[in-house]
Design a protein that fits this description.
By secondary structure, this protein is an alpha+beta fold. It has two domains: 100 residues, Jelly Rolls; 169 residues, Hypothetical protein af1432, CATH 1.10.3210.10. 38% of the residues lie in helices and 21% in strands. Strands 1, 2, 3, 4, 5, 6, 7 and 8 form an eight-stranded antiparallel β-sheet that branches. A hairpin with a 2-residue loop joins β2 and β3. The longest helix has 21 residues. It is globular and about 75 Å long. The chain binds fe (ii) ion (2 copies). The site of one fe (ii) ion has 5 residues, from loops.
Length: 312
Amino acid sequence: MKGLYLHEAARENLNCEDENQFLTLLAKKGNFEVMTQRVIRGATAWLYPAENPGDMEFFFVHTGEMEIVLGEGETRRIGPGDSFYTQGLSRNVLMRCLEDAMLVYVSTCPAFDEQDYWQKELRALMRRVDEYDHNTKRHSRAVMRYAVRLYEALADQLDDGKIELEGFIVAALFHDVGKCNVPGSILRKKSKLTPEEYEIVKCHPCDSATILKPMYGEKIANITLMHHERMDGSGYPQGLSGDQIPMEARILMVADSFDAMTSERGYNRVMGLEEAAEEIVSQNHLYDPLVAQTLLKLVKSGQIKREEETEN
Ligand SMILES: [Fe+2]
Ligand SMILES: [Fe+2]
């Protein structure tokens, strides 16, 4: 019938998906877009300030449960039937998906194409890690989740030039993407590496930074570059120490070591969470004492739990 537009769910050209989110464009008139957004439990989504402060984005929760991070430890849970909209938002706002959710998303500015672009780029990078090594995939996600908890708890310790949480998540998630250049026979070796093999592994922070820099800029690339540095200068690749290492990198160092100590890698003793956090606290020459203490506090209070292996 003339004037009636029926949406067919399987029309692929209207969908943009990554492994955690699935955005479908239902209707578009000029800049005005109506979409549905499916978000998988455990995934994060972002609200961004619109380029034009007059633009509005409206969200209605059809199913599932989300948590909006308002900052300074304040969060708000929303569930089926709840809705909200943004207009003149002053900064990025993080949303966590607590239960698989389906949102109705209406925007007065074009959002679909831009999200499609970012999701494709991130997806390509993530696929590179996923296809290369199963443990790197699991480890990357676990480190990102631990690092985000620490970043949130230490937000007031970060200086004005800090990397926003959104960029920090990229740095944490892709800190080991450079391992894709390490031969699988070395990466998956169960016995001790030879000095030559270890030298090859030590290239991965530089390779991660090289991959990320053109896409996400120097600041984010630098955080990944420094994730194996240590406070006393004994780390690699640059042997930086103390104040030369920014807070974001100190957080990533702790999150990275914490997951390495508490997960099965085939050749290590798997430590309990509290035991590992205490071990990191005791190594105050290697790790930032405040970050280490914060980790221990978050573990003891149950705010950091073991990141189980998931497929998302
Ligand atoms: Fe690494
Ligand atoms: Fe790592």
